[in-house]
Please model this.
Amino acid sequence: MSLPEPVHTFPFDADFGGRTMTLYPSAIETDGGLLLIDTGMPHTVEGILDGVGEAGFDVGDIGMVFLTHQDGDHAGGLSHVLERADPTVIATEIAAAVIDGREEPRVEVGDGRYPPARVDVEVAGGATINTRAGPARVIETPGHTPGHASLYLPEERLLIAGDALGLYEGRLDAPEPEVTMDSEVALESVATLAELDIDRILCYHGGETDAGTSRLQEIVSEH
Model:
């Protein structure tokens, strides 16, 4: 399986309680530069930006940042990106209140909360971002956290799931209950995604899979 040409991933390894996991922030090319999806943690930003360079882009080419949610492994590096580039930052209203420092995150990173940073545009489900892979539609997928959102590219039948889904030992499933704030709501979000025409999914935890709508329907029935 391969992602559409305008879609890129910048995987990096991170330690979670003594367990090393590979995380998959991504980006989509647009006419206004790269749309970077999630920024990792403060100490992993340089690795992501190195990936941007290896894909043939400069840091200054980052024209937008979309944050799927407010957890530190997704939003913690935003302030460091903003030191190097001047993108429009996009998140849901609930996520934005944590990202910009008005509220505290549920999990701290390193020595404390990650550095607050601005959010320019607060979006809700149904909003679209124009990309070179077609329109990217914001899908509200709460459960793992309140305010979580994923991006769906209907022309490519591709879902960029954030933490609404995960690949665990190669198997697509709902987010792990121990790191999910409301597993019942998270499963409702999977049911919402199961109504979409999806052939490929990119998970922040686990990477790419060609599991799609049928697997999402199975997840709902299994739980």
Remarks:
- Helices lie at 45-54, 72-75, 78-84, 93-99, 183-193, 213-222.
